[in-house]
Design a protein that fits this description.
Helix content: over 70%
Largest sheet: none
Shape: globular
Distance between the termini: 31 Å
Order of helices and strands: HHHHHHHHHHHHHH
Mean pLDDT: 86
Number of strands: 0
Strand content: under 5%
Oligomer: single chain
């Protein structure tokens, strides 16, 4: 019992740590804001692959990775899914870095707030999942919130929608690919790394310029992007093995909340009454959605335990 509680505590700490790191990532990307977002993305992809291969080697999972690669290359359907996943996560990364560099972090945080609800929509389309009454109410409230922001701020929040859609589609595709978290990210970055290398080679005449070796601090920050990308993912993978997804559902809102606070209080982005009004609808939608999900999980667990404890007739 004590060991189970310890594992539960480790899971909560790991999940909290992962979402705090994801929420504070803008502070890191600001350190390389003088580098164009497309170049930062190329470096992030390349160094993520380097870091992931190093981690797989240290953990003794390199042979597993090679086996998964071979298996994917012989399965056209799985290969297509993971290739598309790599494209969507790359677009998500680019949009996020671009948002940080262009001081629209609050709009980016909106994207990650509505992402769980977007996942519900895609679950309905791709997996024939039925919307519950509360999920429908949540989606309607979130739509009202986004509409209010669009009307009163003079345009559709494209970055928010792009971030939400690309990550939701990435999640859908990941659900269809049968690989582990670490192996999956390594394969995804491996698939787009050749494109990133070619892009850098066309953008810069020399390797030194492409790597920003003229500024060792910039080179160091770009090279560490791999570790910065993988660290929260490793913590997240640790948490999913130890605590229920319903609990992770509550903790995940730490990330966009931290992003919103950083955008407003550190970088001085506007968050006026209209923003508050629009976000209030989205926050209410998320409260309803998360509570209904948690209640449904508890009910399923209770029904399952009752069924197991029922005496055989």
């Amino acid at each position: 019992m004590e060991q189970k509680l310890n594992q539960h505590g480790i899971g909560i700490l790991a999940a909290t740590g992962s979402y705090i790191l994801w929420g504070t990532l803008p502070l890191y990307w600001k350190l390389v804001s003088h580098v164009p977002a497309d170049i930062v993305l190329a470096h992030r992809i390349i160094w993520s692959l380097v870091f992931m291969l190093g981690m797989l080697l240290i953990l003794g999972k390199l042979m597993t990775f090679l086996h998964e690669v071979k298996k994917l290359f012989t399965n056209k359907r799985q290969f297509l899914f993971i290739t598309l996943a790599a494209c969507f996560i790359s677009l998500n990364w680019f949009s996020y870095i671009w948002a940080v560099n262009h001081d629209i972090l609050i709009e980016a945080s909106l994207g990650y707030y509505i992402n769980p609800l977007m996942s519900v929509v895609f679950g309905m389309f791709f997996f024939k999942e039925k919307l519950t009454k509360w999920q429908t109410i949540s989606l309607l409230l979130a739509t009202v919130g986004v509409a209010i922001k669009a009307v009163y701020t003079g345009g559709v929040p494209l970055i928010s929608i792009t971030l939400a859609i690309t990550f939701a589609l990435y999640s859908v595709l990941k659900k269809k690919v049968e690989v582990g978290v670490l192996t999956g990210l390594a394969i995804e970055t491996m698939l787009v790394t050749p494109i990133a290398i070619l892009y850098l080679s066309f953008a810069y005449p020399t390797i030194s310029e492409a790597l920003y070796l003229q500024s060792l601090s910039t080179f160091a920050f770009l090279a560490c992007a791999g570790g910065v990308t993988a660290a929260p993912l490793l913590l997240f993978a640790t948490s999913t093995k130890r605590i229920p997804l319903s609990m992770i559902g509550f903790i995940q809102y730490l990330s966009p909340t931290i992003m919103l606070l950083i955008g407003n209080f550190i970088y001085g982005e506007a968050f006026d009454k209209i923003h508050l009004f629009a976000f209030s609808f989205i926050w209410l939608a998320l409260i309803i959605y998360t509570v209904s999900q948690s209640t449904a999980v508890k009910k399923r667990n209770f029904d399952s335990s009752q069924k197991q404890n029922r005496p055989a007739s």
